Amino acid sequence: MLKRLISIIILSCFLFTGCFNYNDINRVLFATSLIIDVDEDNNPVIYIETFKPYRSAMSGSEKGERIIIKGQAKTIFEAVRNAGLSSSYKINFTQNKALIFTEKAAGYGVHDFVDFIARDQELIIRQYIAVYEGDVERLLKSKIKAEEYIGIFLADLILNIGTSSRSVKLSINDYFNMRLIPSNAPVTTLLKMSDDQLEDLITIDGGAVFKDDKLVDKLPRERSQGFNFLVNKVKTGTLEVPIIEEENKYVTLEIRNSKTKTKMEYDGEKLKLIKIIKVRTTFGETQSNFVFTDETLQKIAKGAEDNIIRACKDVFEEYKSKELDIFNIQRDFNIKYPKANKENIIRDTSLEVKVEVEIEGSSTKLGFH
User: Fold this and answer.
1) Are 333 and 264 in contact (CB under 8 A)?
2) Which of 21, 158, 207, 296 could form a disulfide linkage to 187, CB 3.0–4.6 angstroms apart?
3) Taking a C-beta distance cutoff of 8 angstroms, is the pair 178, 211 a contact?
4) CA dihedral of 72, 73, 77, 83, whole degrees rounded to 10
5) Where is the protein found, in the record's own terms (predicted)?
6) Model confidence over 308-322: pLDDT tens digits?
């Protein structure tokens, strides 16, 4: 019995080990975002937003301080190491939430930086990638009341993307997968500082379109909803439907769920891309005083369907004319027709969109006007 007890105690010493105090964690700076810019010679300039934890003796709790560290060199690996020379603590990237390229760096191309991002053992591939449009110093000096750390705020903002069907998101892992197909044009989040808010706020302003690791175009916010429907990234959001009988009056439908299925028909020369979109909605608001009869519901659903079809076709035709495959058509085509050996298939693709909008809820309520 005594031997068994001693064995359990010895085993526990090995299994239940941990930090004895706060000395170790207090010697580390945790990166929350990595911002990459380039100088006049296109050499990388990096800004690392870090969290420095420290122990509060008065409250007995863990607190932290935001520290921005700058580094520059001929390569991003060297720039990160040079940034470490400005810190007496080790910089740890395991908690990094966002990788942000300035518009200048993205326009130059991220090809010189992706190897370090993929190879570094601390940088996680599930972090989000974004392009920032504007003055990088304004971004770094911004004081966001909702969240002090840009990386954490951006991660929360993107996770809250379901509130809008017009926002765009992409992780590093998805970007790496998409860049392997030459014809594909990945679309990342496009950020800017909001000019119509009363305080500093970062806002998602559509998407940044990459081709061969370079920023080549921007997807406007008003085109983003059609894009998201085509690539099956709409979960929630709103649909605004004009009331035909009354000028400048709208019904707003809240999207509860959306699913897009893709079919392809290839005749050896031309590809017909068929998108089947089913959207489940409820009434969010009406600007008109009318009874929601079955006939009225059908009209509103038809109006919503027409709007989705128009939005999808408009964004498709625009990027087809630019030969930018932001819809992953080439990837899906290669999977379905592996022996076709057809490059840049978007040039020979026509789009057919079938939409079914279901409106849930009472059909007898009056508008409150």
Assistant:
1) yes
2) 207
3) no
4) -40
5) Membrane
6) 999 999 999 999 999
Show the tokens assigned to 188: 């990342």
Angle 11-13-18 (CA atoms, 0-180°, nearest 5)? 130
Name the nearest CA neighbour of 319 among 176, 233, 218.
218
Helices (H), the chain: 2-15, 76-84, 103-108, 114-119, 136-141, 150-159, 172-178, 221-230, 294-321, 329-336
The string of DSSP codes covering 156-206 is HHHHGGGG-TT----BHHHHHHHTTSTTB--EEEEEEE-SSSSS--EEEEE
Q: CA nearest 65: which of 89, 93, 83?
A: 89
Orientation angle between helical segments 221-230 and 294-321, nearest 10 degrees: 100
Listed residue (288, 271, 286, 281) closest to 304, CA to CA:
281
| DSSP H/E element including 251 | strand 250-266
Q: Are 250 and 287 in contact (CB under 8 A)?
A: yes
Sign of the alpha-carbon torsion through 120, 203, 218, 349: positive
Question: How far is CA 9 from each of CA 5, 18, 19, 20, rounded to the nearest angstrom?
Answer: 6, 16, 19, 18
Tell me the C-alpha distance between 166 and 228, whole Å.
7
Query: For 180-224, what is each residue's pLDDT tens digit?
Result: 887 889 999 999 887 765 566 788 888 999 999 999 999 998 899
Cα dist. 50→30, 94, 122, 138, 269 in Å? Answer: 5, 11, 14, 17, 53
| End-to-end CA separation in angstroms for the chain | 82
Buried b (16+ CB within 10 A) or exposed e, 141-180: eeeeeeeebbbbbbbebbeebeebbbbbbbbbebbeebbe
Q: What distance in Å separates the CA atoms of residue 62 and residue 285, rounded to the nearest whole number?
A: 45
- The CA angle 342-344-347, to the nearest 5 degrees, is 105
58, 240, 257, 360, 364 from 301: Cα distances, Å: 60, 11, 15, 11, 16
